[in-house]
Write a structure and sequence with these properties.
This protein is an alpha/beta fold. The chain has six helices and 17 strands. It is elongated and about 65 Å long.
Length: 297
């Protein structure tokens, strides 16, 4: 029996664990892949209050180590189902909790075109900071129009020979600060009003075929393709106990409470207007504090 079971070891989940552990609760964190969530891939964080500059990896690792130091238990298992009586069923076992916080974040959105899945790790990547060094002095493309795409392009521009930044619209959604920095990079080419039509290659990525708004197609020879078109939640396993909107995000009563008693949600996986590191850790601290308070009632 655990006081609190947390599904997901990103900033929201780890912050929930931190608050519960400091309240002397027995905490289990279940994570399908790697601690840190999406933030671990951020090259640099400059908008977190009180911290001038830190890498996403260092931030996530510091938080992870805090949780371990306080006695948090982290198991790397896939959660298949959560039952109303707070039994969490994974691919390896089942666990009983007094309360559960769902903090699964979101996963990378895919282009869903031929060869994308086949060539992951063979030229196709969703993480510039993870794989960028593999393409030193080579030619790469980044696809996307938000902050992640702009940050990825900036990071890669200091490593590779050339970066093509491809966006389907004529304007970027990302911050002008990043865009201005990119415009000062001599090795970044902007390709706007254009989509990727095909990913070409058998054993590894060889090129991409791009098509503009005039339906003109051309082949672009590249060594690496970094896809940064956003994230999607993965909440299908919880559909029996929570309400989910049309985009797959968990609906809440007030930000953290779900429709099921003692089942809470925190972070990017819920319906919200702003998905940032600050809002993730805020959700985590609120969810844990309310879970602790309400389990004592």
């Amino acid at each position: 029996m655990y006081d609190l079971i947390i599904v997901g070891a990103g900033p929201a989940g780890l912050t929930s664990a931190l608050y519960a552990l400091r309240a002397n609760k027995k905490v289990l964190i279940l994570e399908a892949k790697c601690y840190g969530g999406q933030i671990i891939n951020a090259n640099v964080i400059e908008n977190y209050p009180g911290i001038d500059r830190i890498s996403g990896f260092d931030f996530a690792t510091n938080l992870y180590n805090q949780v371990l130091k306080l006695g948090g238990i982290i198991k790397y298992e896939i959660v298949n189902k959560i039952e109303k009586d707070k039994i969490v069923i994974t691919n390896k076992s089942k666990y009983q909790g007094r309360a559960v916080i769902i903090a699964t974040g979101a996963i990378n959105r895919k282009l869903n075109i031929d060869n994308e899945e086949k060539l992951i790790g063979k030229g196709v990547s969703y993480c510039a900071t993870c794989d960028g060094n593999l393409y030193k002095d080579k030619i790469v493309a980044v696809v996307g129009g938000g902050n992640t795409a702009l940050e990825d392009a900036l990071y890669l521009a200091d490593i590779v020979n050339k970066v093509y930044l491809i966006h389907r619209r004529d304007e970027f959604r990302g911050e002008s600060k990043y865009l201005n920095e990119l415009k000062n990079k001599h090795n970044v080419d902007f390709i706007l009003n254009t989509e990727i039509e095909r990913i070409n290659g058998s054993e590894k990525l060889e090129s991409i075929t791009i098509k503009n708004k005039q339906n003109e197609s051309k082949e672009l020879k590249i060594d690496g393709l970094f896809i940064a078109i956003g994230q999607i939640p993965s909440n299908e396993a919880f559909s029996d106990i929570v309400d989910i909107d049309d985009n797959g995000y968990i609906k809440t009563l007030d930000g953290v409470h779900t429709k099921t008693k003692s089942i809470y949600v925190a972070g990017d996986t819920r319906v919200k207007d702003l998905r940032q590191l600050t809002t993730a850790v805020s959700d985590g601290s609120i969810a844990a504090t309310l879970a602790i308070k309400e389990m004592e009632i």
